[in-house]
Write a structure and sequence with these properties.
Helix content: over 70%
Number of strands: 0
Strand content: under 5%
Order of helices and strands: HHHHHHHHHHHHHHHHHH
Number of domains: 1
Radius of gyration: 23 Å
Distance between the termini: 17 Å
Structural class: mainly alpha
Largest sheet: none
Length: 513
């Protein structure tokens, strides 16, 4: 009975304050300020990829299918590095920025005991290492110290010194070069694994596109690491402006390189690479104005924290990546027509779902700050609000896509067979949007609570179960079976995301009180 009672209490988080779901109070305004630009930035790149897809579709179905496999492969390999890096960076920067601001507030007669409690809590959880003796001297005397984290913050400096920001850039740059080298060298065997054999018509254009696009991997990893830093500052407008500038450049260059210079799929890849380096340069220019990115000493950089928690999220993202990549591989093995249709549906499915990821970003940033301050009331209200908004957004996207895709399929291809198969995938793309939205938001909620271990282990369980369904349903139902399996996968992912809150365990124990 106690477990049932607890579940009822925790399920009520979906309904608490539901009448105020659209109210622009303090929490509503903060969510909107973070989520709207984040959602626009997150969807800008998939939309640009959709426009790429539309341009490439005018060349022919073989090229469309080839680029579809290459984009799926590039994106899935990128996510292996991107998701852990961005997620860990957002949470760590939000915590460190919260501490920095709390210490700065001592100049304005802030309650020192509150800061002591905050620091004690962080020390207990090993989230951040700040010597207690040096901290006490720092807060009461406000004199610069030359020891560990406090020397790294340097309150006197006009620019912030956030150790996790510098760490993220170093790790992001290194991972970007490793990814570029890996994809260029292993392009042929990786595409073969995806179902594009060397004797396939898709093989040559797929290799061309993948190798050229891989040259932009360092820029992709660096720009997303910097986006994680800005998210930690609760600034999602700067990444939006940079992303829009880059994507507009990509869209403008596409027809020039593809059709004027007659470079075909190579032109699409080159346009994308140029746009990614532009985004990276804009973000770096803006970030160096706010943050002192050169650390006084490498020992101040929290590489240990990044590696420990990043490895957990790496496990998680590999599980996610394998499911989606395996689905694309199965579609490719069915032929270029099935792969072309799957590519269009998948890009729309992901682009629409990423709208909800804006809410996940807002939830993660606000919750990381709230948990750092032990402000559980703010945490509870934030969770309720972002989940309710996620459900409403998912229902809207379902209606919009269900109607719009019936009329918009011809924007991507003129091939009758491909259009027919796109029509088969539309109901799945549309109907899963509410589930997808909740799954994405719950991911952000658990990451905001720094529940990295649970996020990793639960996703591995979900992935193993989903892969079994994927093989069975693909073998028995082909193209439709793949989409049924992906629907099951997202349902399990949403359930796993809520299980931690529903059971009131881990960082959510306070809900039972």
């Amino acid at each position: 009975m106690d477990d049932k009672k607890n579940w009822r209490i925790h399920l009520s988080i979906f309904f608490d304050g539901a009448r105020s779901v659209f109210k622009l109070d303090d929490i509503g305004t903060e969510i909107a300020r973070i989520a709207v630009p984040a959602a626009l930035a997150l969807t800008a790149d998939p939309i640009a990829s959709l426009i790429d897809t539309a341009f490439i579709g005018q060349i022919g179905p073989v090229e469309l299918a080839a680029v579809g496999v290459s984009i799926a492969l590039f994106n899935q390999v990128s996510r292996i590095a991107i998701f852990p890096l961005v997620s860990v960076t957002t949470s760590f920067v939000a915590e460190e920025d919260t501490i920095t601001k709390a210490i700065q507030d001592t100049d304005d007669n802030c309650d020192i005991s509150e800061i002591n409690g905050l620091m004690s809590n962080l020390d207990a959880e090993n989230k951040i290492l700040i010597p207690r003796k040096d901290l006490d001297e720092r807060m009461y005397k406000m004199q610069p110290v030359d020891n560990n984290f406090e020397a790294a913050i340097q309150i006197e400096h006009q620019k912030k010194r956030i150790p996790s920001a510098s760490s993220a850039l170093i790790i992001g740059g290194a991972l970007g070069f490793i990814q570029a080298a890996f994809l260029i060298v292993a392009a042929k065997p990786l595409l073969s694994f995806m179902g594009v054999k060397s004797d396939s018509k898709m093989s040559y254009p797929a290799q061309q596109y993948l190798k050229l696009r891989s040259l932009g991997a360092p820029a992709v990893l660096l720009s997303l690491a910097m986006q994680g830093v800005f998210r930690g500052f609760k600034d999602t407008k700067t990444p939006l402006y940079a992303t829009v500038a880059g994507d507009i450049t990509n869209i403008m260059l596409d027809p020039i390189f593809m059709f004027v210079f007659k470079m075909g799929v190579r032109g699409a890849a080159i346009s994308h690479v140029i746009s990614q380096y532009l985004i990276s340069l804009i973000l770096f220019w803006r970030l160096k104005e706010q943050v002192d990115l050169i650390p006084p000493n490498l020992k101040y950089l929290p590489f240990g924290r990044f590696l420990k928690n990043g490895f957990l999220l790496l496990t998680r993202v590999i599980a996610v990546t394998f499911c989606v990549t395996l689905a694309a591989s199965m579609a490719a093995r069915m032929g270029s027509t099935q792969m072309a249709a799957f590519q269009v549906c998948l890009q729309i499915w992901l682009a629409a779902s990423l709208v909800a990821d804006g809410l996940a970003v807002a939830g993660q940033a606000i919750l990381a700050s709230a948990f750092a301050r032990n402000n559980y009331n703010c945490a509870t209200v934030t969770v309720s609000r972002v989940l309710q908004l996620g459900l409403v957004l998912g229902l809207f996207l379902a209606a919009f896509l269900g109607i719009g895709l019936h009329f918009g399929a011809r924007l991507f291809t003129n091939d009758v067979d491909v259009i027919c198969l796109i029509g088969v995938g539309i109901p799945f793309v549309a109907a899963t949007q509410p589930i997808n939205a909740l799954a994405f938001v719950l991911d952000g909620v658990n990451l905001g609570a720094s529940d990295f271990a649970y996020s990793a282990y639960s996703m591995v369980t979900v992935a193993i179960t989903s892969i079994v369904f994927l093989f069975i349903l693909w073998w028995s139902n082909g193209f439709v079976g793949i989409w049924i399996a992906l629907t099951i996968y997202m349902c399990l992912r949403a359930f796993a995301g809520f299980w931690r809150i529903g059971t009131g365990t881990g960082p959510w124990k306070f809900l039972g009180k």
